[in-house]
Amino acid sequence: MHSSLSICVAQLNPVVGDVQGNLAMALQAAEQAQRQGADLLVFPELFLCGYAAEDLFYRPAFLQACEQALQQLREASARWPALCIVMGHPEPVDASHPWPQDSDFLAPAWNAVSVVQAGQVRARYRKQALPNYGVFDEKRYFASSAVIGHGLPDAQVQQQLSTVVEVRGVRIGLLVCEDAWIAEPAARAREAGAQALVVVNASPFALGKPQRRLAVLQARCREVALPMVYAHMVGGQDELVFDGHSFAVDADGRLAAQAPGFQSCLWPLKLVNDAGGALRWQAVKQTCAAPPQADDAMAQIWPALVLATRDYVRKNGFSHVLLGLSGGLDSALVLAIAVDALGADKVRAVMMPSPYTASISVEDAREMVRRLQVRYDEIGIRDTFEAFQRSLASQFAGTQPDTTEENLQARIRGVMLMALSNKFGALLLTTSNKSEAAMGYATLYGDMCGGFAPLKDVYKSDAFELARWRNAHAFEGGIANPIPQRIISRPPSAELRENQTDQDSLPPYDMLDAILRLRMEQDLAAEDIMAQGYPPERVAQVLRLLRINEYKRRQSAPGPKISPRAFGKDWRYPITNRFAG
């Protein structure tokens, strides 16, 4: 090879379905990479169409649009003949191929990577290992290249299963995401002559995932004794958030360099010969970040929530948001997230006191908006609540007040917030957390109203820690200490009746969240949870409420996945369900 191979990782933020917009982003990146003297420009998995495009892959017109964009990239690449571009995209399955009669082979596309240079497609690689667990449904959409050899000679099969392309004298082996998590594809690439590996990825974030993926890929590099660059996507897409943190690992498994997390960048690095003639990575130091620390959970969660909220709002065509501010912890957190994501001028908070709203709740809400400088309005609901009660008095005659009257207050607030959303075109952010969603401790068509739920995957016990973390950090230059301490220290309450607290009807949040984690993330049975020392009556209560409130969660707003298992795509329980084990 020449003195070094200059590589640029396009850790960028595509939009699902905006094929021409993603192409324009790619062309701009190519221009910049060429000016910086890059030899190789690497884009993430399925960059041209965005990840995850889901059932769009069944639309022939969608796949045709992706094919057209790839051809446009090929033609444009003639402008930079020295630059080799690795682009992730879907490739329509050739229906004329003699596929086995098996449903796994009826997918509409391959998850492909094309190597484009000087007006030509030099090579193509198709993903072999298709994840089909958690949030992944890749066998629904893609054929595996591990079966494309049906009816072909063995030599051609091997050629199809490994793609190695030479760039400035270095033989580069290509892999797509899950291919690098198993042994065979990397081993095949080495057998085909690869001297270094390029892995393109769209790996959704969850707490601890950056550290886990790094450890897996370090082990893979040691196993095949090849250096590897991991090119990762960044950005929010519905329930998923991609954290970036692209990295380069040497053949001995040493982390050589890491790109920043939760931000777009063109990340340059070099592959050089060391004194012994072995290939190793050389960082361009000013662009490299320290790897995320596993013990600093909130420092990962906060930017994930901010990025997910910003992208959901902007990618869906909204410019500003509003939310109901109660003076409690959850709405305070959502307000702080929204300001960090969009800026104070794009956020509106509405306080809607009822007869049961404590004066300190109003005071704390006012203090928080004073700190954050957002638009703030107060709309009392006492008169509306009393009007509803009068209208229903004859129907409710002979009954005692109960949660019906409590829910009326939440639903009045929901109607008002949705009216403001409709009138002014602001996306309504809902403020429920994961613990409340699990227990059904939220009012359908009331405080569950909204288009996006930033805290949907945040346990209540973590919400307290998250608030303390944000108060201690001026996130990306934002306001430090935005949340009044009294909001964090007060006992949580829905304030829908006199002297109400959450713990009147729920276990302490530390206990509740521990039980939920054991059930949701480890699938433990009731008796196994009790065996860990939790009271049987509390375990039974939590698991019952988790089961019977599935119907509410199906009607809730989407929110970003940050835990190993989140409500939404990652949680698929039947609504009608009598299994209580």
Keywords:
single chain; alpha/beta; 6-stranded mixed sheet; 37% helix; elongated; EC 6.3.5.1; nucleotide-binding; ATP-binding; glutaminase activity
Give a description of the structure.
It contains 18 helices and 20 strands. Helix 8 packs across helix 13 and helix 15 (509-522) crosses helix 17 (536-548). Strands 1, 2, 3, 4, 5, 6, 15 and 16 form an 8-stranded mixed sheet that branches. Residues 148-157 have low confidence and may be disordered. The N and C termini lie far apart (62 Å). The protein has 2 domains: 4-295, Nitrilase/N-carbamoyl-D-aminoacid amidohydrolase (4-Layer Sandwich); 298-503, Rossmann fold (3-Layer(aba) Sandwich). It has 581 residues and is of the alpha/beta class. A hairpin with a 5-residue loop joins strand 13 (247-249) and strand 14 (255-258). It comes from Lampropedia cohaerens. It catalyses: deamido-NAD(+) + L-glutamine + ATP + H2O = L-glutamate + AMP + diphosphate + NAD(+) + H(+). GO terms for molecular function: ATP binding; glutaminase activity; NAD+ synthase (glutamine-hydrolyzing) activity; NAD+ synthase activity. Pfam families: CN_hydrolase, NAD_synthase.
Compose a concise summary of this entry:
The chain has 581 residues and is α/β, with parallel strands linked by helices.
User: Oligomeric state of the chains?
Assistant: single chain
The CATH topology of the largest domain is given as Nitrilase/N-carbamoyl-D-aminoacid amidohydrolase
Arithmetic mean of pLDDT: 91
Strand content: 15-25%
Count helical runs.
18
State the major sheet: 8 strands, mixed
Q: Spans with pLDDT under 50 lasting ≥5 residues?
A: 148-157
How far apart are the first and last residues' alpha carbons, in Å? Answer: 62 Å
Active site: 45 (proton acceptor), 127 (for glutaminase activity), 177 (nucleophile)
Pathway: Cofactor biosynthesis; NAD(+) biosynthesis; NAD(+) from deamido-NAD(+) (L-Gln route): step 1/1
Keywords: ATP-binding, Ligase, NAD, Nucleotide-binding
Binding site for deamido-NAD(+): 407, 436, 552
